[in-house]
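Write out the 3D structure for:
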Amino acid sequence: MLRRIVLIGATGFFGQRLARRLATIKGVELTLTSRSEERAKALTQKLEGGARCTPFAFDRDDPSSMARLRLLSPWLVIDASGPFQSANFNLARAAIGLGAHWIDLADARDYLLNFGTALDAVARARGVAVRAGASSTPALSMAVVEDLTAGWQRVDSIDIAIMPGGGGDVGEAVIRAILSYTGAPITAFEEGRQREIAGWGSLRRTRIERLGTRYLSPVETADAVLMQRRFNVRSRVSFSAGLQSRIEQFGLFVLAQLRQRGVIAKIESLAPLLAKARRITRFFSTDRGGMTVTCAGVDASGRQTKARWLLIAEKGAGPDVPVLPVVALTRLLLLGGETAGAEITALPLAAIEAEMLPPSLTISRTIQHAGPDCLIASACGSASYSLLPSAVRAFHDQDAPPVWTGKADIDAATSLAGCVVRAFAGFPASARGADVTVTVDRCGGEEIWQRNFDGSRFASRLRYEGGNVVSERFGPFDILLRLSAENGEVRMPVAGWRIGPIKLPLFLAPTSDTREFAGDDGRFHFDVRIGLPLSGLLAHYRGWLEPQREDVVAPNLNATSVRA
């Protein structure tokens, strides 16, 4: 007996790709819906000559369409219409009322976080499986993280980036969904806590093999909430997008700035114009895209570890990736492998990867383990490092907590030259008792320190150079520090500086009088004085840090459940 699947939005950007995949599954009969019956008929004729496929005119906002849905007696309803940023649960409730299973491709944060609460009880009562988010996020991203971190003692950070090819067509509905949160507050999990940032409101440069250089901007997903709670992430969950077209990427960044400043209020109205503009920008792009998921933390053996999953999509296969979790979940439903209830889609990664057909979709994994000694121990020597106070070693050890908080007093430059350099570097202004958060990403002899002094943030990258020398990169400059561990303190005077491979005169180098030590209170203390050879003091900050409290990292989140 054939089981009827009703695909809502079958003629849309993702709906057509999903329809082609579902049409190859044995034992199902597809009903393809569109607001235009003619478009639904045209798609039906393309799919295996229309065998086992029937067209159906459907408008989710029309009560008569909802009433006619009952006549189809669906076994499964799949919603690929979107955008879900403004969607409600009425259509899902109607499907449940018909005794049908439900799958959607939603990636909108509020929709996903309220999905289980709104629908779980009625789904269980009807005995049907109701699943949301069967797309690149959160179904695929969650499956990858589950696979990469299996057995880990601790997950410190999760960084996800989607980098689509720019040569393919993109529907107006997709552009409208992107614009809906461009420049608007979105939830991020950074520095061990949730905070709001602007969608598409920042740029970060990265380089990925086979994809080249991309600029990444934060996008709205539910991952910051769902993954932090599911994997008890200690430091960061980030989800970014990097468009191949620089014009499109930087254009969204500019629109985000304009919206934040109140210059443009409703940028969604620009969707038709931007859809037309893509007809030009796409000709300067290719169809190669990808997705990366990078996790860092402490593995089952207690080693600091970084694991990365990379998907490369070619030959126009990139837009197929968001529909693959739906196909995998449909197969499981046909086998009776899903239980009744409403929840976020949770699938084994292997089930989704089985739908990825080479050579257009290829996957690779890399795992990087840190060495036996932390960066500071390598530079100071293991014997000297072992004699340091426990509070100092607790901050630097390979398995040290990634987020530390405390208080600091700050003296900032007052000279014109010092103020200019301080502003360029992001050093904080003068303050007393400022709140401090320091986040440390560790792996493979490198550490990235993100410092936050009452909202003033600046970061540096530390790398072990050999001997007792560590380089600390600020922007294009590498400052070489000669470390020593004596009398219970770590000291870090400047031994040189450079831009890339070019060494710069030492007499022009910034100076550093840096001490790390254990205070009388037993905490980790720091005293950092940075100067300039011609203008004197640049910044002097001193204070204390302790590991961030558990109740701050994992607040009581009002989020729908995710199966373990």
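The chain has 17 helices and 29 strands.
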